[in-house]
Amino acid sequence: MATKRVVGLSFANEAAPVVILKGAGESADELLEQAGAAMPVIRSPELVDRLYRTPIDSATDKDLLPVMTALLEHVLRLDRNNQETPS
C-alpha cells in the first residue's frame, strides 16, 4: 500500500500557484484533519505525485497551469456555493 501524501497550494498573488506545505504518512493524516471542512480537499494521486516533487515555497511547473486553472475555478465555485448556502 502506498503512503498517503498531501500537498497544500496557495493561489494568492502569484503568477502560478505555490506549494506551501507537504506531508506524508501520519503527517498527511494530521494535515487533512486540520484542514477539516475549512479547506477544499481535492483527491488526485497523479496530481499529488507531480506536486510533491515541487519544493515548498516554489511555484508549480508551467505545464501544470491548465490543471491549476481548473483547480482554482473549482475551489472558487465551492467558495461561492458555500457563501450562498445559509447556515
Q: Would you write up a description of this structure?
A:
The protein is of the alpha+beta class and 87 residues long. It has one domain: secretion proteins EscU (name from scop). It is built from three helices and two strands; from the N terminus they run E-E-H-H-H. The protein has a two-stranded antiparallel sheet. Strand 1 and strand 2 form a beta hairpin. It is globular and about 40 Å long. The relative contact order is 0.19. The mean pLDDT is 85.
Q: What layout of secondary structure does this protein have?
A:
Blueprint lengths: L4 E6 L7 E7 L1 H10 L9 H8 L12 H20 L3
Helical fraction equals: 40-55%
CATH class: Alpha Beta
Strand order of the largest sheet: 1-2
Radius of gyration: 14 Å
Q: Structural class of the helix and strand makeup?
A: alpha+beta
- Compute the separation of the termini in Å: 39 Å
Approximately what portion of the residues adopt beta-strand conformation? 5-15%
The largest sheet, given as strand count, sense and whether it forms a barrel, is:
2 strands, antiparallel
CATH homologous superfamily title: secretion proteins EscU
Average pLDDT across residues?
Answer: 85
CATH architecture: 3-Layer(aba) Sandwich
- What is the H/E string? EEHHH
